[in-house]
Amino acid sequence: MQDRLKRMQAEGIAEIAQAPDTRALDDIRVALLGRKGALTEILRGLGTAPPDQRPAIGKAANAVKKALEEAIDARKTVLETQVARREARETAVDMSLPGRRPMRGHMHLVPQVAEEILGIFLELGFQAATGPDVETEYYNFDSLNTPPDHPARDLHDTFFVKPGVVLRSHTSPVQMRVMEKHAPPVAVVVPGRVYRNDYDASHSPMFYQIEGLLVDKGVSFADLKGTLLLFIHRFFGPDTEMRFRPHFFPFTEPSAEVDISCSVCKGEGCRLCKNTGWLEILGCGMVHPVVFGYAGYDCETYTGYAFGLGIDRIAMLRHAIDNIHHLYENDLRFLEQF
Ligand code: PHE
After folding, report:
1. Which of 128, 161, 262, 286 ranks highest by number of CB atoms within 10 Å?
2. What is the pLDDT of residues 154-186, one digit of tens each?
3. Ligand 1 centroid to residue 305 C-alpha, Å
4. Among candidates 47, 17, 11, which has minimal Cα distance to 32?
5. Closest residue to atom 5 of ligand 1, CA basis
6. Which residues line ligand 1 (CB under 6 A)?
7. What is the mean pLDDT of residues 229-258?
């Protein structure tokens, strides 16, 4: 029996050392030490051994049991450590991988362009001013020499909020609001939203303008031209050409529209400039004496110029955007480009 025990210990320990995982190890434990296991089997034959040998056999059996248990525990520790190491390796964070960038917003193209344009005029000494989007007919039209029966009112498809109150159809009413508050000289630029009932690829019912107004003694059309040329060269580049076309606005006299040489074809003629070589960018003129009358300015002493440019239009020209609605549909694939 002692021999059987010794063999069993040697074989058991060899088997334990080979156990590939804890499940297999547990099966081995049951087969060796379980209630129906090999050791129990050997001890069952204890009754047939001579009585004086029984204590020695019992002692030997206990030693075998202890040795096997220790071997199993040791193997278990090894296997568990292996598993833990593998798991740690598989779930580890690779610090050397590049991180995921968080989504970052940026300023929308329209205010970007507005800031750039304003910056040029602020540098020249103009001050920024603002006025309300919901405006009275008086400021939007009457005080700008556009009485109710004036045909020019038809040119702006104005949204009425209620009788006498409109969504401003241009930023020019802020001219009057500024002049009412401040005695001359004044030099202001006025960014803001304007509204017209108009909708196609180049017209949106809401868009942006920047108004300019400068009033002082001795201001001439040449000052207007010089200032606008400086602005155009700064904003569109020094090779850009400028031309004035006679035009009509009720609140300026004389009035003009200003074109720049086409930024795409440099005047050769292309789709953007409809083969004219020129792009219209703003309206302007010398402040009408009637407007000065409404403002309480003495038109014998003071003269001034005003201009109004479309920010959307300028943003579109600069980036060859063919549809104004891209600017307002908030499609990130579009907006992210700027
Ligand atoms: N308010 C005019 C428009 O919206 C532009 C303009 C402004 C013209 C100032 C002359 C002077 O068309």
Report:
1. 262
2. 767 899 999 999 999 999 999 999 999 999 999
3. 11
4. 11
5. 308
6. 170, 172, 211, 249, 252, 255, 283-285, 306-308
7. 97
Ligand 1 centroid, distance to 172 Cα (angstroms): 6
Give the burial class of 337: count Cβ atoms within 10 A of its Cβ; 0-12 exposed, 13-18 middle, 19 or more buried. Answer: exposed
Residue 63: pLDDT above 90? no
Ligand 1 atom 4, closest CA: 170
Whole-number Å distance between alpha carbons of 59 and 55: 6
Atom number in ligand 1 closest to CA 169 = 4
What's the pLDDT at 155?
66
Strand partners for 187: 214
Looking at ligand 1, which residue's alpha carbon is closest to its atom 10? 284
- DSSP states along 148-164: TT-GGGGGS-PPEEETT
- For residue 330, the CA-to-ligand 1 centroid distance in Å is 28
SS3 (DSSP) at 259: strand
Alpha carbon nearest to ligand 1 atom 6, residue: 308
Cα(295)–Cα(252) distance, integer angstroms: 14
CA-CA distance, 175 to 182, in Å (whole number)? 11
In the predicted model, is pLDDT for residue 36 greater than 70? Answer: yes
96-100, 105-109, 173-177, 187-191, range with the lowest pLDDT: 96-100
pLDDT digits (tens, 9 = 90+) for 199-242: 988 899 999 999 999 999 999 999 999 999 999 999 999 999 99
Ligand 1 centre to CA of 256 (Å) is 9
C-alpha distances in angstroms, 287 versus 117, 121, 236, 293, 308?
Answer: 22, 19, 26, 11, 12
Instruction: Write out the E strands in the chain.
Output: 127-128, 134-136, 160-162, 165-167, 186-195, 206-216, 242-249, 252-261, 278-287, 303-310
